[in-house]
Design brief:
The complex is a heterodimer. By secondary structure, chain A is an alpha+beta fold. In chain A, 32% of the residues lie in helices and 37% in strands. A 6-stranded mixed sheet of chain A has the order 2-13-12-4-7-9. By secondary structure, chain B is mostly helical. Chain B has 10 helices and 5 strands. In chain B, the strands form 2 sheets. Chain B has a two-stranded antiparallel sheet. In chain B, strands 3-4 form a two-stranded antiparallel sheet. In chain B, a hairpin with a 4-residue loop joins strand 3 and strand 4 (171-174). The relative contact order of chain B is 0.22. Classes of the chains: A alpha+beta, B mainly alpha.
Amino acid sequence: MRQLLAALVVMLGLADSAMADAPKEGVEADASTRQVAITSSFTGTEILVFGAVTNSVQPSPEAGTYDVIVLVEGIPAPVVVRHKSRVGGIWINTQSMRFASVPSYYAIASTRPIDEIADKAVLDAQGIGFDHVRMVRAAQSRTDATDPAELQTFKEALIRLKERERVYVKSDFGVAFIGSSLFRATIALPPNVPVGPLTAHVYLFKGGQMLGEYSNRVMLQREGVERYIHRTAMTQPLLYGIVTVLLAASSGLAAAFAFRKNG
Amino acid sequence: MTLYLPIAEMSVSVIVFLALGMSVGFLSGLFGVGGGFLLMPLLTFLGVPSAVAVATSASHVVASSVSGAITHYRRGNVDIRMGLVMLTGGLTGTYLGVSAVKILRRLGYFDFTVALMYVVFLGVVGTIIFVEGINASRQVRSAGAAGARKSGQHGWMEGLPFKMRFPRSKLYMSAVPPVIIGMFIGCLSAIMGIGGGFVIIPAMIYLLRMPTGLVIGTSLFQIVFVAALATVLHAVENKTVDVVLAFILIVGGVIGAQFGTMVGEKLRGEHLRALLGAVILLVAARMAYELVVPPADLFSLAAVAGAS
């Protein structure tokens, strides 16, 4: 009995030391495409983010040993949130709050709801989730109140509106393990996705602790005619305006001429 | 078939926008108006940002008025001198209007201002045209030339300085009223994305007392230039002109206009005017509805202009 117990202790000890010796788990990931082209036929697309847990001890895909959060973020941009109120029977924007920097696009997919995966403090620190991402309020805002409740109301409205535009997307069970270490998630880019480089982040969690993070750039840019037109409009607006007018005038004249011949 | 619009940054159905251009073109051919006042609200209704809708409508106005202007010019129905005087005001007004759009967008009052201006101007003009059209069709042929015009009589305008001779219109009057009218229309045109024919024509007839035969040609002459400048300035100042969207609408518009003209020739003038008045009032009512009814969401988002 004593021997058995001793053997057990040794075995446990061995197992324990084996655990300690086992290399730490990490995460490796990539996106299916590094380059998304916006052409004249662009109607939105999907990118696949996949990866693997290195040194996984997860026995099966369903075991749920690890939690993975996949985050795809657009470049931060300033935005104004406006609030309408009734003035003399007419609805007019009366209050506004300006945010100096909010993600223009923000898609999040996870193995389960993120607040189950980690604490608020961890999510806040990493900026994971709509409520945790950093949204800095700019100095010049047209609101009388400066209390945090007001800020919260505007922030919630901002998230709600962005969600309605489908540029903020959340998928609570969007990341699926395929094997004991392999996982994947598809992220939808809507047709109105703000053009600019995207960053894909993959976070690996186990028992509320973050084990690893992996980031990658995904280029999202206009191409072909689309790129040419947009660039001309932005960098040579005078030329662009004149060409538009000439195009309009010549179409008008061409139509008048064509129909006069027919009729 | 869908197409991604480079400036509006949205994917749209070409068929829908072609059909929109055709319907607006049909009505503009039918009534002999530019159709900007119909196009702008319909574009916003389909989800095009209002600033893009206004700027792109301006380019549509160029296309729909240029051939008319040239036809009238060939027939000698344009008072170039009067047109140029009005243009000096018109171009200034356009510049002021485009600058106003820039400021209003920054303050978040642009949508509201546009809607209010539509309600006020379309409401007033629509009522006048509608009532006049109804009355005219009631009193069938009561008088051939209702307002016996006496050229050169302007009452209060007599005292204004900078008198000029307009031989084509047989007028001798101060240059101030045409410049001010031109400036006012230019400003309206830039903010509302319209040609402004429905405001400028009554103003030329009743305020300047120009001969009716010259009014349409001269107004078209000045609208072409004002709309062209508005397009260029919107492109430069606000970067809101979408050439792809403009082209789709223009193609639809010019085709629709031909059918509109054919149908219009079969209808009586006063019926047409009553119908036009009704359409204008409908658009005004639609805009008024938007202002008065509680919005679905009190909050709205806007990108900060000049940030990207």
